[in-house]
Amino acid sequence: MFFYNLGIYAFQFGLKLASPFNAKAKLWTEGRKGWRTHLKEAVVKLELKHAIWLHCASLGEFEQGRPVIEKIKQDFPNQKIVLTFFSPSGYEIQKHYPLADLVIYLPADTPFNAWQFLEILKPKIAIFVKYEFWLNYLFGLHKRSIPTFLISTVIKKHQTFFKWYGGNFRKALRTYHTIFTQDVYSLRLLKLLKVESGSLAGDTRFDRVLQICSSPKSIPEIKHFAENAFVVVAGSSWEKDEDYLIESYAVLKAKHPSLRLIIAPHEIDKNTIDRLKNLLHKYHIPFHLFSDNLTTYTHPVLIVNAIGFLSSVYQYGTVAVIGGGFGDGIHNILEPTVYGLPVLFGPNFEKFNEAHELLDLKAAFVYHDAKEMTNQLHSFMVSPQELSVASSLARNYVLKNSGATDKIATVLENYLGQSPNLKGLEPKTVNS
Q1: CA 319, CA 14: separation in Å to the nearest integer?
Q2: Is 314 in a helix, a strand, or coil?
Q3: What is the pTM of this model?
Q4: Is 289 helix (H, G, I), strand (E, B) or coil?
Q5: Enclosing domain of residue 311
Q6: Is 43 in the same domain as 148?
């Protein structure tokens, strides 16, 4: 643990040094100042002792944990919930999330912070989402006999658990009372690590996108823009995605006048929007910005330069092009597939199970350049039958994989109806 703790201290110190020059580092450090006093006051004022503690790294993990929070609140409306985030990108957007009684940053995982946090809060149970393995917190929860769960996780052979130096992380896995995995392969790897607490539940993101799809935000001006058109929605696009997309659009528009394009870039800062404008001007393509606030958008390209709309914009699309495939990895492909949109994305998709499964179904397609994108979109535009089949496969894939939230909730309910001193949950022996 010495080197792990040293790394935590070094990371914390590095962020403090960077905070005057980096906005996210500043939010990270400023947001944690005075956390002990704030938490103590909140526990008393909001009666949070023995609350459920749910922790997410960032916004993506929150979307996986959200269906579980909502299910708990539905079945146990008086149950208190404390929601923590590691990253500013999650906290800043969800700090007023109404179903959590308290939303705060997770203090850095030092031994003293972890001890104090648990001593003050004394949670009834703890739930971590996907990839959160904070050793001091996990070992502290274990020592206190607090049932701890990991949801929507994926175990991979390249992770630290399988390294020669991963002994403490293997011990940490054994502190969980249940590890809810997304797939069977993760269960097999857990057994290889001699961890017997794995349970196949699936990914709660499927439940979340179905929930959004059941009551999407209506955007009348985009609905009008998309009427009687073949609409390509570019979601969370990055520079290279946009280069290929607009080159492809310029070629296809000449042959298919009904083609329309909605671009929702990953970043909407001035530099990004100006670059997009210049790119469209280069190809002499007229466009509107969503911020123009028109009731009718007459040009064939619309740039959504606002946050919070993308998941609802997909309902008006025909095909989706998902960004990130030429960078760190593709963004959410379930948000469009739940509406029956086939998806295209760049080659960096290896770590996303759903991408592989949709590719196998032929409801998703990889492109490496503008020509490949053009060919696939053209194929859909000239063959309604091919488009219809891919659309049905995409939608059915989401429906088939839903239900993880109920599986997880069924197990959690065994603990939520009991007193804080849960019987039969003595600490398990944690061996290396």
Answers
A1: 43
A2: helix
A3: 0.85
A4: strand
A5: 217-400
A6: yes
